[in-house]
Amino acid sequence: MIHLLDSAQEHKINLIQSACITLCNMASKPQLHQHFIYEPEISTIKNCLSNPIDKHKGNELVRYMIKLVCNLTKNPEMLIPLSKKGFLEELFILLDNEK
């Protein structure tokens, strides 16, 4: 699924959205959180959060990516890796833009 996000192309938006939903659901399980903090996963997720391919089409992927990161932040052990990669700043920017 990370490879789908990494090679995100707008013409594959439905497949990419399905991958985002699946990753978001996985991130709701604390026992799976460790799989999200390694490379290339963490950089791919950060890139999808920072540079969404659907920014002109309703931002569905952005919403799922925000939910994914919010699920990860529920685990205190995840805050340091996410913070080091700039996720929290990006999350606050996106949440502010959602208003």
Structure explained in plain terms:
The structure is a single chain. This protein is mainly α. It has one domain (2-98). Helix content is 66%, strand content 0%. The chain is built from 6 helices and no strands. The chain has helices at residues 2-6, 13-27, 41-50, 60-73, 76-84, 87-98.
Number of strands: 0
- Tell me which oligomeric state these chains represent: single chain
Question: Strand-and-helix sequence, N→C?
Answer: HHHHHH
What is the count of distinct domains? Answer: 1
Total helical segments: 6
The N- to C-terminal Cα distance equals 29 Å
**How would a textbook summarize the main sheet?**
none
| Low-confidence regions | none
Strand content: under 5%
- Rg, alpha carbons: 12 Å
Shape: globular
Overall mean confidence score, pLDDT = 83
Helix content: 55-70%
**Which structural class best describes the helix and strand composition?**
mainly alpha
Q: What's this, in brief?
A:
This protein has one domain (2-98). The protein contains 6 helices and no strands.
